Amino acid sequence: MISAIIEERRSVRKYDPDFTIEKEEILEMLEQATLAPSTSNLQPWEFLVFLDDEERKELRKIAYNQEQIETASAVIAVLGDKEFYRNIDPVYDSMSDAGFVDDATKAVLVGNALKAYPHASEQSRINMATFDSGLAAMQFMLIAKERGYATGPMGGFDKVKFMERFNLEERYFPIVLITIGKENAPSYSTTRIAIEEKVKFI
Q1: Residue 149: which domain range?
Q2: What is the reported pLDDT for 142?
Q3: pLDDT at residue number 50
Q4: Most buried one in 30, 35, 65, 199, CB count within 10 A?
Q5: For position 73, which CATH number holds?
Q6: Is the pLDDT of residue 123 over 90?
Q7: How is the chain classified by DSSP, letter by letter?
């Protein structure tokens, strides 16, 4: 089943502008997507979900006038959190409350995280947050495909203007926009370089 979803997924640019997806279902998909692995389970991601027509007009300007910003049912902005070490206590308290770790294990996990992440360079934390958020973004697109929706990842937008226009806190930075909705025109298929040219066994 997962193989078929992966093989059938395409990046879509043409959407039915009259098709809607309920907020509750978007939340369900994002909740599933964030079961993706992350650095020490610190979940360095945030999401802005664009539904409002006026806000999406503004977003379209920032995204180089790409029409799918307005015709998709929603646009998910995936943000990285370069201060994800602030999640240390909430994450490990939650794991402890759920009975997943005992007090001794929790103390070790918290201690290791406090030693590593608050003192890491900002660029290192940006790299980790970008990688982890990318895992969640890909899972979201596969979950959406399983539910019958089309998606399209968009890296083509002005990230500085995005941060300014939507008043992001200093700790957050935009990584990718994902359009989601009902496909309105067939997307073209693509090819891949032969895997033998991309893999070396050592």
Answers
A1: 2-78+131-186
A2: 98
A3: 98
A4: 30
A5: 3.40.109.10
A6: yes
A7: -HHHHHHH--B---B-TT----HHHHHHHHHHHTTS--GGG---EEEEEE--HHHHHHHHHHTTT-THHHHSSEEEEEEEETTGGGGHHHHHHHHHHTTSS-HHHHHHHHHHHHHHSTTS-HHHHHHHHHHHHHHHHHHHHHHHHHTT-EEEEE--S-HHHHHHHTT--TTEEEEEEEEEE-B-SPPPP-----GGGT----
